[in-house]
Model the fold of this input.
Amino acid sequence: GRHGDPHPGKPILIKCFFLTPTISQPPGHPTRIVHQGIKYMTTPKSFWNFAVRTYRCEGVPEACIALQNERGADVNVLLFCCWIGATRGEFEIETLDRVLEFSRAWADRVVRPLRSVRTWMKIEGCPDPGMPVESCTNLRERIKKVELEAERLQENTMQSMVDTLPGVTLSVTEQSRAATLNLRRYCQAEGIDLDHETQTRLDIILQAAIPHGGSSRGGAR
Done:
């Protein structure tokens, strides 16, 4: 999971739902093209870049953190489901199993302990009257950076698991459908109930990851 920003400091939120098929987008945005009347979107080959771009979209940090804190979701895996859907289509069952086996262990042993330390320091440790506040805050910021490095290593490792799989060219609708199925399979594997609130948050992430691709409520159930 993330802690409010893909880079240390305050996140720079942007609206990600205004793309048109005929205008080139600024760096960091997906570019959409039209081929024989079908809309396509070029997606960053780097999962990390895709995740950073998506996470900076308006509403996404709040949706991700709510799914992380209230449903136990791994934000990196949620974003990976979208990236795979956009670049390679539906998850192969074996690939999903490998990604989850690695990510569960990495989150339990590395990311969550770092997050727990950082959160405790913010709420209790640094505000302690006997604690030198500046020194404690500086240490917490260093831990935050290590947490981010751990997440980046997780994302790079996840990408390495699919680097040998061929990329595919999919229409925006096909990307969205595949990402939706990937998100559903992940939630089912983790026992996350796809209730209205969860669906709404997944929709925010999906529509930022694959603009104009549709809702996660469509597709197979």
Q: What stands out?
A: The two ends are 25 Å apart (CA to CA). Residues 3-12, 17-42 have pLDDT under 50 and may be disordered. Strands lie at 31-35, 38-42. The chain has seven helices and two strands.
